[in-house]
Structures are given as C-alpha cells and as structure tokens.
Amino acid sequence: xxxxxxxxxxxxxxxxxxxxxxxxxxxxxxxxxxxxxxxxxxxxxxxxxxxxxxxxxxxxxxxxxxxxxxxxxxxxxxxxxxxxxxxxxxxxxxxxxxxxxxxxxxxxxxxxxxxxxxxxxxxxxxxxxxxxxxxxxxxxxxxxxxxxxxxxxxxxxxxxxxxxxxxxxxxxxxxxxxxxxxxxxxxxxxxxxxxxxxxxxxxxxxxxxxxxxxxxxxxxxxxxxxxxxxxxxxxxxxx
Amino acid sequence: xxxxxxxxxxxxxxxxxxxxxxxxxxxxxxxxxxxxxxxxxxxxxxxxxxxxxxxxxxxxxxxxxxxxxxxxxxxxxxxxxxxxxxxxxxxxxxxxxxxxxxxxxxxxxxxxxxxxxxxxxxxxxxxxxxxxxxxxxxxxxxxxxxxxxxxxxxxxxxxxxxxxxxxxxxxxxxxxxxxxxxxxxxxxxxxxxxxxxxxxxxxxxxxxxxxxxxxxxxxxxxxxxxxxxxxxxxxxxxx
Lengths: 239, 239
Fold this sequence. Notes:
Chains A, B: Residues 7-150 form the Nudix hydrolase domain. By secondary structure, chain A is of the alpha+beta class.
C-alpha cells in the first residue's frame, strides 16, 4: 500500500490464545499463540501477530477475520475487539492497529487447520510466556492481551473458550493455573467457582484412576464476551 | 484534510457522561452528555460527539484529550478507550473512529468549564435518554457507551466517577437508578453493595431531616477502569 497523504494507515491484528500440554513429564498446560514470520521490511524476519491492512471496503471485524484466515488458516466463530494501538512511534510509518482476540480450544484449532485449503506458511505457535523480540509493539500487545485474560476473563468464559463442553473443577482449575502462572488452592477454588454461579454442575461424572469427579458445564446465562455494539446493544432506528 | 489515497482516515471522539438533577419537582437524576453542533458537511447542523482527526504526530489518547478540550473546554484527568468503530458506511467517506469515554462528576464539569479560556461554542448538554438524530453513527456509539455503563461498570466505579468522595448508600442507589432507568430495592441494593466490598463504610454520617445515614467511600483497591496497556500492563523492555 502506498503511503497516504495523511500518513496514517489502519491495520488489524489478532491474538489467538489456546492451551497446549507441554511435552514434558509433568505435562503442564501452557498458553500458546500463533505468530507469523515477516517476509519484508520493516522488521523483516521478526515474528509478528497475524494481521494486515484494513481494506477500503471492509469493516474492522471482517478485516480481522480475513487477515487471520489468510495468514494462519484459522477462522474462529467470534473475534472480540481488544484495543486500538496508535502510539506515534510504534512503527517506522504511522499505523493505527485495531487488535482483536479470541480464545480457542486446541481441538478447534486442530480441526480448523486440518480443514484449511492452503497450509499456512511462516506460522509458528509460541509459548506466550517465552516470546522472542517481536515486530513493532507486538510484545506489548500480547502482554496486554494476557493481562486482560488474567484480570477480566472469569472462570466461566475460560471454561467456554478453552475447555470442552463438560469438564471437572480440576480441569477448570488447571486451565486457570496455566493462565495465572501459579497454583490455586483446590478447596478455595471450588468455593469461589460454586459461589459465582458461572458454571453449572451436571449429573455426569468422570471415572478413572481417581474417585469419580463431577462434570460441570458453563452457564450460558453469564455474559462471556463483550459482544460489541452491533451485536448486543439495542438497535437504533435508521436515521 | 484532503481525502487520502487509501481512502481511510482516523478520527477520535469522546463520550463524556455526567449526572444532572432534572429541573422538575421530582428532581430526578439524569445521565447527560455534551454534543457539538456540526458547522460543515457532512451532516451540517446535526449534533455530534466532540472529536476530530487524529494528528500525524499524536497518539490516540492525546488526540482524544486535545479534541475534547478544543471543542468543549473539558479536560478529564483520565479518558478510557471505549471501542473502535469502523463500519464501511458509517460516514460518506471512510472513517475509523477511536472512541474514548469518561465519567465526570457535575461539579468537576462546572469547575472545568469555569476555568476554560474560551467558552465553547456550539456545545449543548443532552439527556442521554432523549437524543435527537445525531451525525454519523453517533446515536449508536452513545447507545453502546450507555450499555457498557449499565453492564460493565460496577457500583464502585460509578461511585468514584459520578459521586463525591463521601456518599451515602442512598446517594449511590439513586445514581445507579438513574443509569439503569429503574428503581432498585433499597434493602437488596444495600446487601449487594456491602457484599461486593467495592465501597467502604467510614465513621462519618450525614445528618439532616432523616435519621443519620452512614457515609461511604469507594474502595481504591478495586480496579475501576480499564487502564490500557501503557498504564497497567507490565512494562516490556525496549527492543
């Protein structure tokens, strides 16, 4: 794209967060995300968030979905707007980036990648807690996304975004421990989750080597994501 | 500003919400906000949110503060990013608007307007629940801001943003009733607020024609606003 007269261009980028089990004996869960290796200046060869320029004839949400699919082969059912980054010095040229994010279960990721027509090139999944120096301010953007995940995303939403339909409280605790990067006391965790009403016990149990553990599902009545003005706010009559 | 080659321009707008007492016998509190009458096309003569173009050499936060001060004389200590609006047809030309918002106490508004060098022109304060047809998608933006205020802003933040330092639970309830547009049961409200830990009782009481009412203050330990990546997220070492 040619540098425009006003000198300000609009891009979109997307942070896709999922969990993978570490291939180590302890097999702990780790937050991972896909990054794309840059093939041109600025920051050629550095890793960056999937994204691209906003098209003249597409909305922000559509641009985020399109650029994510083009670069990674992923097509989440819902992308949420995270934040607009517009510092003057965040790029050698002036770029305002509207950043989206989504939480995806690893089985969703696997299914979408298996179904992608062209296998994505130059894409690798990184441990979010051990990133290299990325292009632009993308380290900072990911730090912000992880901070939001830790601070603003409740147990129910994590359950919905990162766990299968039915899960035990131990599953839910393990996911939250991976996100928070610290152990949670099982008894306290159970009390907090049960008091919150954000997950609902089912009649099912998981059996195995331990005593049977009750299966839960997330409470669909609890608002999980910021649905954005065009999805949830009352409709304004056309002017 | 000349239409750029890419055809996409970036603007900032700000939603300033405060409460005023209706000049009617019941004197109920009403959410009000300042709007600016447009003096040129498109939408000449219609009312619009205060705002303007993003400068090539200023960040998003700075542009929001500058355009708000220039158009309304207001300078809140903190503006929070609300959402980026970028639908293709939201303006006759292609404009992405980064929208900020703030809750201001009416006495803060009065003090800032009294201190403003130039009294703002073409500015009026409107009842948020009875707006005319505004320019662009600004009705929709305000509907979204009010939806966020109702759904995402807890009692503590409302107390901090819209009430003086010390307030009674009746004050806090009245403010929340104004925002929600419905009555709240006093006993239930008291229980919920006290259980939330978001406001803290003081030793003070307000005396008057009724029995003394305890004064509360907001709990500064509770996160009030989304502080944005540059304010709260852990600092990333410079690359």
